[in-house]
């Protein structure tokens, strides 16, 4: 069984969550999030899935917290900025400029190449580990880039975040006695074309997944309330305005939308979302994402979780696939804390009083 770590009672859970969401330093914010997740009873494996940290790092962070409280989670590199380093401030600035460009060999930067740059600059051999340390000191991390459309406008994305909060305030002003929530929704296409995922296996073994490539699809409509982690799903054969109207009407009935209950729903600008034939129920307010901005969509975070039970599997029919998806969606309805942890962005407006 995955291990659950025990924490010393330095802070209550609500205090840890507040510290995590208010932290300005990204390293400290993630460390506080790890402690908060552990405090809520999640296993190291689940915490690793949410935060992207190795389990060994999670153990170390929990140990520091148990010994020193939140002081043990601080990024101590900030405390030694005046100590002697290999590179002076000017040399560090030159290295930073170099890192913004392509390395001399035309490849990608890594610890060894940074150490080579330092060796040439200092005219002496520098161990590759020091190069890695400087990359970390610059708050740089090794990550696979998320594809972003070249037409995406970052300024427009930031303005949209502000607009979302303004919409919330406007609805509160018009309906001061009403309950208001902010949800997100998206559609996910799944089919008989297999989804392949990495799995843990014994050293030296090669995992095999039996597949049968066929291009038949169904669609999962997913709604998420990031602030609570509540979700809602529909499985349908296609996407169009008629079906989307049915989904919205059912969503409004399920959550009892009215003049006393309002939901702001964030979604992309797909044709069936913006059609003139769209029928918007009372109490529902559609807030469209900026163009080419899927990274602002919390509902997209649902799909890796949805895919887990169908990964590396082959299904004979769409009905077989739908049966597994139906059970998976039922299971995810009960995993609100995990879903909240991965969809409740730090900038997402807070509606709960």
Key terms:
353 residues; alpha/beta; Nucleotidyltransferase, domain 5; 3 domains; globular
The name of the CATH architecture of the largest domain is: 2-Layer Sandwich
Q: What's the total number of strands?
A: 5
CATH third-level topology of the largest domain: Nucleotidyltransferase, domain 5
Shape: globular
Give the helix/strand class.
Answer: alpha/beta
Uncertain stretches of 5 or more adjacent residues: none
Q: Please give the order of strands in the largest beta sheet.
A: 3-2-1-4-5
Query: What fraction of residues sit in β-strands?
Result: 5-15%
Rg (C-alpha, Å): 24 Å
The ordered H/E elements are HHHHHHHHEEEHEHEHHH
Average pLDDT rating: 89
State the fourth-level CATH superfamily of the largest domain: Ribonuclease H-like superfamily/Ribonuclease H
Level-1 CATH class name of the largest domain = Alpha Beta
Oligomer: single chain
Share in helix: 40-55%
Can you describe this structure?
The chain is an alpha/beta fold. It has 3 domains: 13-77, no CATH class; 91-137, no CATH class; 154-343, 2-Layer Sandwich (Nucleotidyltransferase, domain 5). The chain has helices spanning 13-22, 26-39, 44-51, 55-68, 89-99, 111-122, 128-137, 154-174, 241-254, 271-274, 302-307, 318-333, 336-343, and strands at 179-191, 217-225, 230-236, 261-267, 284-288. Strands 3-2-1-4-5 form a 5-stranded mixed beta sheet, with helices on both faces. The chain is globular and about 70 Å long. The mean pLDDT is 89.
């Amino acid at each position: 069984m995955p291990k659950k770590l025990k924490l010393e009672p330095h802070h209550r859970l609500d205090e840890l969550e507040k510290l995590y969401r208010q932290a300005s330093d990204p390293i400290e914010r993630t460390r506080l999030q790890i402690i908060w997740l552990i405090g809520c009873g999640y296993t190291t494996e689940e915490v690793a899935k949410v935060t992207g940290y190795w389990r060994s790092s999670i153990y170390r962070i929990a140990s520091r917290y148990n010994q020193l409280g939140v002081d043990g989670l601080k990024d101590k590199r900030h405390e030694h900025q005046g100590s002697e380093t290999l590179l002076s401030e000017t040399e560090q600035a030159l290295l930073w400029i170099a890192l913004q460009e392509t390395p001399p060999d035309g490849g990608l930067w890594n610890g060894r190449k940074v150490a080579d740059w330092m060796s040439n600059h200092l005219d002496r051999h520098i161990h590759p580990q020091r190069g890695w340390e400087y990359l970390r000191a610059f708050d740089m991390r090794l990550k696979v880039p998320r594809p972003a459309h070249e037409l995406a406008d970052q300024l427009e994305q930031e303005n949209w975040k502000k607009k979302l909060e303004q919409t919330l305030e406007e609805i509160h002003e018009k309906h001061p006695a009403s309950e208001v929530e902010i949800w997100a929704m998206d559609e996910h296409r799944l089919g008989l074309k297999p989804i392949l995922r990495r799995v843990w296996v014994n050293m030296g073994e090669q995992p095999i997944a039996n597949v049968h490539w066929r291009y038949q699809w169904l669609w999962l409509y997913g709604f998420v309330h990031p602030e609570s982690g509540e979700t809602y799903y529909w499985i349908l054969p296609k996407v169009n305005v008629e079906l989307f109207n049915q989904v919205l009407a059912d969503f409004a009935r399920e959550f009892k939308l009215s003049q006393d209950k309002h939901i702001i729903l964030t979604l992309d600008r797909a044709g069936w979302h913006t059609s003139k034939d769209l029928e918007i129920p009372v109490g529902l307010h559609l807030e469209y994402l900026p163009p080419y901005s899927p990274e602002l969509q919390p509902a997209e975070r649902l799909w890796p979780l949805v895919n887990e039970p169908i990964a590396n599997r082959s299904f004979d029919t769409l009905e077989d696939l739908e049966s597994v998806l139906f059970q998976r969606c039922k299971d995810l309805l009960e995993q609100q804390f995990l879903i909240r942890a991965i969809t409740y962005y730090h900038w997402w407006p807070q509606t709960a009083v």
